[in-house]
Design brief:
Strand content: under 5%
Order of helices and strands: HHHHHHHEHHEH
Number of strands: 2
Shape: elongated
Largest sheet: 2 strands, parallel
Structural class: mainly alpha
Radius of gyration: 20 Å
Number of helices: 10
Length: 195
């Protein structure tokens, strides 16, 4: 198992290049030299670090796959291809599961929800439920989903990943964003461009 973890860590460092060992060290809260020792076989990560490395690599793999789904949705839009509604609902949930989404993609999701009758399964994650409830309401749909009362609004936009930008973005947050505890922005002008 440890060799698999080390191989994943090594592939990730090779893929991302300069500075990635330091990123791993900061993320795992270990000295950078420890990461080098792991990669060169002089030490082994303990069980907790192995699990953290595995989870981070799995999350990255899932996010890469979700990005593929996002690109597929855009390809279908530009190719004027109809997506079966059961597939569309799964695509939308996967895209809403990304850590952050650009505003044009959020507008595209809303466009599809407005255009098609889409039934969604209730996501387990409170954050994804809030995102879905927000998307449905932004798209003018009724929903039985109740907002989860997070202490602070959760970012959904890519720009909201910076603390300074998140604070600035709160001035643009819509009433629905406040209701669903999501740092959002108005999508109407962007959605209009899809028509």
């Amino acid at each position: 198992m440890d060799s698999d973890i080390i191989n994943r860590l090594s592939r990730d460092c090779n893929t991302h290049g300069y500075g990635r060992k330091k990123w791993w060290a900061d993320t795992l809260k270990v000295p950078p030299l420890t990461v080098s020792h792991w990669l060169h076989g002089r030490q082994q990560p303990n069980g907790q670090h192995s699990l953290q490395i595995q989870k981070i690599c799995e999350d990255a793999k899932q996010n890469n796959l979700r990005t593929v789904w996002k690109n597929l949705l855009w390809d279908c839009y530009y190719g004027k291809q109809k997506i079966p509604e059961n597939v569309l609902s799964a695509l939308i949930i996967e895209i809403l599961s990304l850590p952050a989404i650009d505003s044009r993609t959020l507008a595209l999701l809303s466009y599809y929800v407005e255009k098609y009758h889409v039934e969604f399964p209730l996501p387990e994650s409170p954050e994804i439920r809030n995102r879905l409830g927000w998307l449905l309401e932004v798209s003018g749909k009724e929903t039985d989903i109740k907002p989860h009362a997070f202490r602070r609004p959760r970012p959904i936009l890519i720009i909201a990943q910076s603390p300074a930008l998140s604070k600035h973005l709160q001035s643009f947050q819509t009433d629905l964003g406040k209701k669903w505890k999501i740092l959002d922005c108005p999508l109407e002008s962007t959605k209009t461009s899809f028509l």
